[in-house]
User: Which sequence fits this backbone?
């Protein structure tokens, strides 16, 4: 589990994955999230025969697919990236029934985007289990051009779409699965503080 | 004033639905529309039962799109405290009454992909309004409605005719039972479950759903409790410095009101949490009858819901 400093209410908080009764355990993970999945399934081996794992390497290159394979889940799938994992998740959810438990673990980008797919079907987001593992790189939406920049490490950073220099807030949108980035030199153009690495 | 702004209404129709249930239709005395409401909302109906003030919650069953009138259906409870008997025996068309604004503690989650409703007996009423709302929005739903017999299954004909294939009726006297396990095992993800009926039915549905992995946020229920009777008891109200006696057929909330104390309330049925009151000292046992307080809060003895809960023992002091 990653420990985060206290923040505004909008910032998501994460827990620790725990088994719940269900006929299907749908697990979505990236990067170091594989370790949380391994904990869950080795401590609760009975879950394996009803577990379906979707996995992708993390944004910093962590690929623990071999750990996932070793878990002997009923079904495991490796996607090369988050954008290629999501259509598979949509397809799995399409056929899933109530009584399915949902476990998300890894980076905030993966957790947020998977949560959005689950929420879109009317499943209550408070009942989705989430555990943060690995990279804290952020997915940020520029409030000006609406473009999303993935894997933001510094604050401020330059929007990958419109080029504005953006201050990274803790203000988070579940609908967008992104943090908010706001122009830092709007009032005094050119007065841009040097970027600091805040996320890794 | 507690309970919010009231609505001055007139009874326009009283209709016997079956041997136990009557339907009451209210229109605004002003002649204009009534406030809008959503399916699942209830109103608190005020009654002056020959000197005894009664305030009972009833679900609105009419179509939420129609604000020209509100309708409630009331099951006669011959052994209750008298609210339903008063409505059945004394309320006639043309009478003026006071009701609360609609309050919804059983609202539809509009994000749901599908709605499954389980009704028992008079528990059908909130679903009547919800079904009108869902049908108009063309959203998928299923109703599973159990009653003692066809004669007591209020609105079964109307519902079945209006929504063929979506309404499923079960009659106890025909030994028909809702196959809940099968029902809950075959719903697409994102389905929400709504249950309204007698307590054993609600407990059965909540328990079965939890065991089958249905998350809390997708399972909704509503059950209004009648305050119930009990031994008389004394309470000291610390904030207003009054000592009152709660009678056998009176609730603590009603006793406070009778003593001129303006205590907060909304549902008057142990469901909404509005009347939650701090217990300052307690030498005896609080008889918790609500389903608002958590098990820990109830056990702590530091909170009481005056609309339904009672006390037995030496002394009780509450912060009111």
Assistant:
């Amino acid at each position: 589990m990653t420990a985060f400093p206290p923040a505004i209410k909008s910032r998501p908080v994460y827990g620790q994955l725990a088994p719940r009764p269900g006929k299907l355990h749908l697990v979505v993970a990236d990067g170091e999230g594989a370790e949380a999945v391994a904990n869950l399934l080795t401590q609760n081996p009975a879950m394996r025969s009803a577990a379906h794992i979707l996995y992708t390497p993390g944004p910093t290159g962590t690929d623990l697919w071999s750990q996932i394979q070793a878990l002997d889940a009923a079904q495991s799938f490796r996607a090369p990236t988050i954008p290629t994992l999501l259509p598979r998740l949509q397809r799995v959810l399409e056929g899933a029934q109530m009584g399915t438990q949902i476990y998300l673990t890894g980076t905030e980008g993966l957790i947020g985007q998977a949560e959005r797919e689950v929420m879109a079907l009317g499943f209550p987001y408070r009942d989705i289990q989430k555990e943060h593992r690995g990279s804290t790189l952020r997915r940020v939406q520029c409030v000006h051009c609406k473009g999303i920049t993935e894997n933001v490490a510094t604050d401020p950073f330059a929007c990958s779409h419109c080029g504005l220099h953006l201050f990274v807030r803790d203000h988070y949108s579940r609908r967008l699965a992104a943090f908010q980035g706001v122009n830092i030199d709007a009032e005094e153009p050119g007065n841009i503080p040097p970027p600091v690495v805040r996320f890794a | 004033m507690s309970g919010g702004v009231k609505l001055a209404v007139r009874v326009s129709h009283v209709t016997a639905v079956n041997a136990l249930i009557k339907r009451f239709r209210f229109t605004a005395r002003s002649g204009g529309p009534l406030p809008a409401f959503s399916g699942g909302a209830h109103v608190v109906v005020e009654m002056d039962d020959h000197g005894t003030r009664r305030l009972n919650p009833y679900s609105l069953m009419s179509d939420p799109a129609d604000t020209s009138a509100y309708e409630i259906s009331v099951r006669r409870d011959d052994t209750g405290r008298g609210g339903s008997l008063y409505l059945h025996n004394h309320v006639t068309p043309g009478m003026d009454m006071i009701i609360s604004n609609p309050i919804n503690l059983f609202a539809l989650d509009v994000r749901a992909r599908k709605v499954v409703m389980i009704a028992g007996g008079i528990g059908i009423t909130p679903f009547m309004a919800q079904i009108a709302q869902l049908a108009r929005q063309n959203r998928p739903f299923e109703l599973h409605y159990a009653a003692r017999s066809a004669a007591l299954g209020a609105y079964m004909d109307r519902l079945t005719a209006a929504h063929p294939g979506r309404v499923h009726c079960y009659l106890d006297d025909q030994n028909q039972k809702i196959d809940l396990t099968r029902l809950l095992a075959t719903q697409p993800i994102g389905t929400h479950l709504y249950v309204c009926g007698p307590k054993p039915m609600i407990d059965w549905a909540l328990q079965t759903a939890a065991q089958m992995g249905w998350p809390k946020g997708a399972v909704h229920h509503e059950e209004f409790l009648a305050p119930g009777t009990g031994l008389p008891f004394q309470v000291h109200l610390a904030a207003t410095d009054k000592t009152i006696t709660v009678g056998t057929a009176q609730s603590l909330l009603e006793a406070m009101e009778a003593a001129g104390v303006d205590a907060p309330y909304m549902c008057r049925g142990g469901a909404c949490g509005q009347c939650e009151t701090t217990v300052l000292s307690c030498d005896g046992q609080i008889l918790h009858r609500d389903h608002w307080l958590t098990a820990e809060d109830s056990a702590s003895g530091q909170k009481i819901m005056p609309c339904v809960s009672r006390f037995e023992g030496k002394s009780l002091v509450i912060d009111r």
The mean pLDDT of chain B is 94. The interface with chain A takes residues 109, 111-114, 184-192, 210-218 of chain B (CB under 8 Å).
